[in-house]
Amino acid sequence: MAEQKAFEEWTILELMGHRRLAGLVREQTIGSASFIRIDVFVEGDQAIATQFYNPSAVYCMTPVSEEMARRVARRDQPAPVTRWELPPSTSEPQSGKVEDSGEGYKVIDDDPKNRIGDDELEFEEDIP
Hints:
The protein is mainly beta. It is built from one helix and seven strands. The chain has one helix spanning about 65-75, and strands at about 10-15, 20-30, 35-40, 50-55, 60-65, 95-100, 105-110. The strands form two sheets. Strands 4-3-2-1-5 form a five-stranded antiparallel sheet. A two-stranded antiparallel ribbon has the order 6-7. Strand 2 (about 20-30) and strand 3 (about 35-40) form a beta hairpin.
């Protein structure tokens, strides 16, 4: 039985989520699962992105020349991966800041335009 050659082609890869990428596509096994790996190149030999997809997410693969894949990749570059982080905390009071008073959490509103004077408050009588 002849050994099957692993897939490795310059391809335009279209995914179910209406994404289109172009680059060098290969098969890759991670653990016991098979994935489609795409390395996206624009200029030179350094990939600007490498992504892995489950084969069931693929809508269409169109084999193209390396030159065509690079041209499509220039136009349809994937967004770089970024980390999501909270902004650093500041020591200045902020409007709507939440503090733990020791008796539970309370919201502190330091914005003067949101303050209500005692003369503006209306109290309802206690209901027995």
